[in-house]
Q: What sequence folds into this?
């Protein structure tokens, strides 16, 4: 089964970084420009957390904070499950389910390497099942004539 390293290798190099002291409005503009649901929060080379759409909804809108006055570090998510590069996609799925999250932080030892999302895992599941789906459809076409009779 595919592992975290292979999933990260398939992803385009990230351009979704923001500094923790940035205003929330800047983070929202960046989310829009990169067309993703999360930003990686870093200060220099140090990973700090992620800022996602859920953080905005729950920690800004619902708490009456200002996007123009408050900063990302006040509302970002800092505690997410961690996976290692050698962990399998299946392990990632189980971890997401157990922790009820859409994101996993991928580390190589102590070095942050990227984020594994629920969408990354869904793409892998679909890709690995494609052969099965194709085989089933082909089987149905071969086993039935135009009138629907099964041979």
A:
């Amino acid at each position: 089964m595919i592992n975290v390293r292979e999933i990260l290798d398939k992803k385009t190099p990230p351009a979704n970084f923001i500094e923790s002291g940035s205003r929330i409005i800047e983070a929202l503009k960046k989310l829009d420009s990169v067309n993703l649901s999360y930003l990686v929060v870093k200060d220099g080379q140090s990973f700090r957390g992620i800022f996602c759409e859920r953080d905005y909804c729950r920690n800004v809108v619902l708490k009456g904070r200002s996007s123009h006055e408050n900063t990302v570090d006040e509302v970002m998510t800092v505690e997410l499950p961690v996976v290692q590069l050698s962990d399998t996609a299946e392990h990632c799925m189980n971890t997401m389910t157990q922790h009820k999250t859409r994101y996993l932080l991928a580390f190589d030892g102590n070095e942050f390497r990227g984020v594994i999302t629920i969408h990354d895992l869904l793409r892998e599941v679909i890709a690995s099942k494609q052969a099965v789906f194709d085989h089933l459809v082909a089987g149905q076409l071969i086993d039935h004539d135009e009138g629907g009779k099964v041979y």
User: Anything to note?
Assistant: The mean pLDDT is 87. Strands lie at 17-18, 38-43, 46-52, 82-84, 103-108, 111-117. Residues 21 and 54 are 19 Å apart (CA to CA).
